[in-house]
Amino acid sequence: MRAEISGKNTGVPLSLLAALALATMAGPLSIDTYLPAFPLMADDLGTTEPGIQLTLTLFMAGMALGQFFIGPMSDSMGRRRLLLGSQLIAAAAAFVCAVSPDIWVMWGGRLVQGIAGGAGVVLARAVVADLVVGKTAARAFALMMLINGIAPIMAPLVGAVLLVPFGWRSIFVFMGLFNVFAMIVLALVVKESLPPENRSAGGLRGLFGGIAEVVKIRGFLGYVIAFWFSFGAMFAYISGSPFVMQGQLGLGVGTYSMLFAVSSAMIVLGSAVSARMVNTIDPRRLLAFGILLMLTASVLLLVDALLNPTVWVIVPLLMLALFSMGFIMGNATALATGLARRRAGAASAMLGAGQFVVAGAISPMVGLGADAAATMGTVMTCSVLVALAGYVWGVKRENYTS
């Protein structure tokens, strides 16, 4: 049953949000924990650096595929069974990666791991969208993001702690055990959120019909575009920051890693502030604030890069941009899924699959220019401008007046 919009109503129990956040944590944990192990993996599996990098590409592709197909599928099959099954499959795939004798098995394991991880993300969002709407949903998504934000902060540390004494295979054992733990918690806490009478028709028609249906909803696509391209701007930072910080500004690996962790914490802080403010401020206003804040940071970053880039200016601006993500992701998700209540799985699939497609397209652009800082600032600014245009279009299409 849907909770009514209420400033004081938390809508979803914190225990449920924490359990669902475990399902969404699998993505960052499965990426950030094993990045330091790339050289050792290449030697052990007898492959090249591009061969190991392909394990990350296949995982990201799997995340997009899992969200695109499993989201609409859950509109007809329900959420709980698929959610538990996704964690079981992700665990099995991680264990396969841990014992992989060659790069071919590793590639297959990572693809399956990504598909199952994507399913966990899309289903967790759909469960929240089934239960709450409006401000309540925005608060719930912000709190879930806050919990989920712990993963990219802790993952590199966990990977480093395991890598030296136990080797790279122990990292994948950790991933598998985490999925088993998540499955147990989800089984104990999560009940089916989509009753049979509210489910859509199955089959291919139901699968693709759900996507077609949500795209036609007035305002939906605008909020989705805002979500996609804000994430794209953040991914431009993720892919470009090593070249800017280490190559152009001369920071050491340790200093850069520390700054990356602090930057990730800024997203958590932004989510916490947004969750607090949504009780009294409309999610549309908070989303607009987040996008404009990110645009301001991106433009100033570009100006500084064109003049004389310095670490004392670039780092605070990047942190400001990531702080704004805490306002953008949760509110954009709540607004988009709130418009597509009967197709929450398909709506969540559009949000999730598209963000990885956009991020994958934007990431190579950061490496095109000779000046890393200027190129990163340009790509971030252009991406946020598209997000702003999507937001404006979404509000107008929804016929919302402040």
From TrEMBL:
Its main location: membrane. One of its GO terms (molecular function) is xenobiotic transmembrane transporter activity. It is found in: Cell membrane. It comes from Corynebacterium xerosis. PANTHER family: CHLORAMPHENICOL EFFLUX PUMP RV0191 (PTHR43124:SF3), PURINE EFFLUX PUMP PBUE (PTHR43124). GO terms for cellular component: plasma membrane. CDD domains: MFS_MdfA_MDR_like (cd17320). InterPro entries: Efflux_drug-R_Bcr/CmlA, MFS, MFS_dom, MFS_Efflux_Transporters, MFS_trans_sf, Sugar_transporter_CS, Tet-R_TetA/multi-R_MdtG-like. This is Bcr/CflA family efflux MFS transporter. NCBIfam families: efflux_Bcr_CflA (TIGR00710).
